[in-house]
């Protein structure tokens, strides 16, 4: 990701800066997120595409010179640690090399996991709110 580019305000603007083959990969991830979480909202956060559900970050992604960075939060990478062990990454992040196909099934399962995690957190928060008596 080239941080010398102007600030982006939409995911479309972010994706448009890259060559077509990178745009295609980014759009694949974007489409997959919307298939799994059609109610997800899009925004730019930390200078990268971000999706939120239930008021919490679902995932982020970004393009770099040699990889696509995917950020399913620490819980997302912990849940899939064994499958992610073949990739570079850190706490809450994984790097999918550009010279390999995107592991769309794995990305799908991580997004599903995160969407369910956010849903449960929102339900738990709602259950804690005191109800007003009429």
From TrEMBL:
<dbReference type="Pfam" id="PF08818">
    <property type="entry name" value="DUF1801"/>
</dbReference>
<protein>
    <recommendedName>
        <fullName>YdhG-like domain-containing protein</fullName>
    </recommendedName>
</protein>
<dbReference type="InterPro" id="IPR014922">
    <property type="entry name" value="YdhG-like"/>
</dbReference>
<feature type="domain" description="YdhG-like">
    <location>
        <begin position="23"/>
        <end position="113"/>
    </location>
</feature>
